[in-house]
Amino acid sequence: MVRLVLYFLAALVSGIVSFYLPNPTAVNLVTGFSVGLLIPALDEVGKNREDIRHLWYSTRYRNRIIRVSTSYLFRIKVDDKYLLIRGRRFPQFQPVGGVHKVTAQGSGELLAMGVMDDDLVPFDSSSRGDLRVRVPGRGIARFFTWFNSRQGREDSPWREFQEELVASSILSSAHFPHIMHNYVRRDVDKIRYSPHAQSLEILVADIYELTPNPDQEAELRNLMNSGHPDLLWASTQQISRRGAVPGQTHQVVIAQHAQRIL
Question: Which of these, 120, 131, 71, lies nearest to 96 by C-alpha position?
Fold first, then answer.
């Protein structure tokens, strides 16, 4: 971000100086230098577009309260089917994953920013420490700077995988004492008004893909054929249609955020 500002300032100063140079050759050199600086500057804009957007939010919505919810989701795929699990809070099937947790250090930093707990989801033992919060609009850029630093918050998807699939005995601890996964991407939604939350809202999701070893893949295949009542192995079309199958009665509901793992 600092580099971007320096590029634009250098290009601006060079452009202004070129108007006061009497020598045409010198003008051409300075103008060429100024134009040349715009190329890396535009490249930096592309790299920092989310930071720029959040700076804009901090100005545009400085007097508003914005709900921010951050989570991580697992893409668990066998052949052409994706594993979804029955939600604990809502009657729908969704990807394995959940909301990031905040450490004691992170809670202190959020408190210093004026960040408040979100009460949309009832507080209980499982929701305590969730990074589902209400952020003063003027602090949005600062909040995301903290979030992107990964300090003071959960930075591994293992906890929800272990709780939802291993501790529940859906998968065996013998084959899943640990897992390997690839980081796919981060989705940061643009700000929008949420009727459900009755406020402006930004949703963030880190997507991971499970990379099972041969024993783990074999167990997942057995699980796919087990007919477990709390699991759904869904196709791309089913997820895109949120559970609807053309020509059939709508029997299951798939969460909208499941589309993030496609």
Answer: 71
CA dihedral 56, 57, 63, 65 (to 10 degrees): -170
Identify whether residues 41 and 168 lie together within a single domain.
no
Q: Is 57 helix (H, G, I), strand (E, B) or coil?
A: helix
For residue 92, what are the domain limits? 53-261
Q: Is residue 40 located within the same domain as residue 83? A: no
Residues 61, 177, single domain; the answer is yes
* 213 CA to centre of own chain: 26
Asked whether residue 101 falls in the same domain as residue 144, the answer is yes
Specify the number of domains making up the chain: 2
Furthest C-alpha separation in the chain: 82
CA 51/CA 49 separation, integer angstroms: 5
pLDDT in tens, 8-52: 555 555 555 455 545 555 444 445 555 555 555 555 555 678 888
pTM assigned to the model: 0.81
Torsion of CA 207, 226, 240, 199, to 10 degrees: -60
